[in-house]
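Practice problem 4.
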């Protein structure tokens, strides 16, 4: 199967197929050195871009160094990931036409909000690469923080009278 890396409207470079890909096909393996999440956090602390993929329970990540690292996020993807015997495969979710950019939903679950802005342009774009569950968790946390701050301001006003 022919895969090429070229400019992408989603993010800098993307991975495209030169051949038709059938639904269910193992397209490419996500490869690279395996390092601990802590090591990755330290290594990429000040880096705006990473190609890390969490495996297993998330305590180990693959530091992407191959074709798959160029597959961009989309909220309406044509591929998905599957971990099989500790290896991460990019799988076709549907028939993919020659020349089409390969994408999968990253479903991020940690990091800073600014780092996760989505540029996929899909009709159903959620404007973030975070998973819907992570977005809900963050919204609840922000709501609790705002309520706590408002309560704190209310106590300060009562004391100053």
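Answer key:
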């Amino acid at each position: 199967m022919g895969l090429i890396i070229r400019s992408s409207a989603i993010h800098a470079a993307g991975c495209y197929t030169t051949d038709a890909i059938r639904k269910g096909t193992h397209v490419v393996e996500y490869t690279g050195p395996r390092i601990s999440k802590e090591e990755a956090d330290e290594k990429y602390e000040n880096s705006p871009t990473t190609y890390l993929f969490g495996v297993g329970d998330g305590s180990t990540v693959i530091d992407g160094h191959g074709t798959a690292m160029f597959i961009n996020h989309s909220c309406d993807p044509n591929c998905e990931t599957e971990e099989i015997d500790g290896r991460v495969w990019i799988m076709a979710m549907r028939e993919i036409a020659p020349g089409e950019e390969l994408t999968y939903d990253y479903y991020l679950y940690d990091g800073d909000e600014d780092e996760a802005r989505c540029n996929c342009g899909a009709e159903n774009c959620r404007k973030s690469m975070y998973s819907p569950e992570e977005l809900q968790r963050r919204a609840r946390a922000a709501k609790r923080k705002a309520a706590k701050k408002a309560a704190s301001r209310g106590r300060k006003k009562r004391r100053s009278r």
